[in-house]
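dude i think i finally got it to work??
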Amino acid sequence: MKYQLIVFDFDGTLADSELSIMEAMRLVARDFGLPEIDCSVVRRGIGLPLQRTIELGLGLDAGDAEAAVERYRNYYHEIAFDSTRLFPGVSETLELLRREHLLAIASSKSRQGLLSMTRHLGILDHFSCIAGAQDVAQGKPAPDMVLLALERLAVPAEQCLVVGDTVFDIEMGQRARADTCAVTYGNHSAAELRGANPTFIIDSFSGITGCL
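look at this
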């Protein structure tokens, strides 16, 4: 077995949370008197630390974006549980993978948010490690979250596969010296992902079984 550990991004990889993210961003933009958001611009920053996502997505300076973070989190919490869904094949594939692999999550969401959402979606028990924004000194694309999972689970980097939908996920995995798998159904395009040179590219979540 080549990979002992598989580390997954959450938004855009395990779960389709785009509606929740965009609506929370719209509400924050309204509060700051900004025009209607450009979803394509917001999408490009998803996966980065939340403040940076807000800076890029809404065009706010660092001070205003910092002030917007808690407002965004409050709106997101009100919206997300009704509008976030697992992508097709995620539940069944995770159930298969956990039989032979350790599974982890590395996400720019808060740790508490990840625990609440994965519990709500019925997948919390599949994961041996969940790393969120507050667990590391540096968010994506820094390797900190993957390194944390490797350390906690005592797995060498060469036995780890990092799976995500953005170039930030791929860079995170590469900087941790792990192999990487890009999924094309999330927030970044297949062309962008190919440019990041992942080890594998798949078009559906269940396709990961062909990489192992």
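The longest strand covers residues 102-106.
im so relieved honestly
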